[in-house]
Amino acid sequence: MIIIPTKYFKKKVSKLPKSIKLKLAKRIHLFMSEQKNIILNNHQLNGKYSGYRSINITGDYRVIFEELEDGSVRLIDIDTHPNLYQ
């Protein structure tokens, strides 16, 4: 699987605390090998994020992504649950 982070996603990651960056790296590694692992809570989104999916990074942090037709994944956003879904 190919992971394609957007510029916006990279910018958001650069501002995260180191502990969240480490957890993100571990979860992306897990996601690449097991997209449907229960720990990730990979699920379809509705509303303003209709057509996108989300995975859990921590109890509060989420990554929003888009599955592309070629099987690759575009990482759209990362933030806390309240900040993403307000």
TrEMBL record:
Keywords: Toxin-antitoxin system. It comes from Candidatus Zambryskibacteria bacterium RIFCSPLOWO2_02_FULL_44_12b. It comes from the Bacteria. Pfam families: YafQ_toxin (PF15738). This is Addiction module toxin RelE.
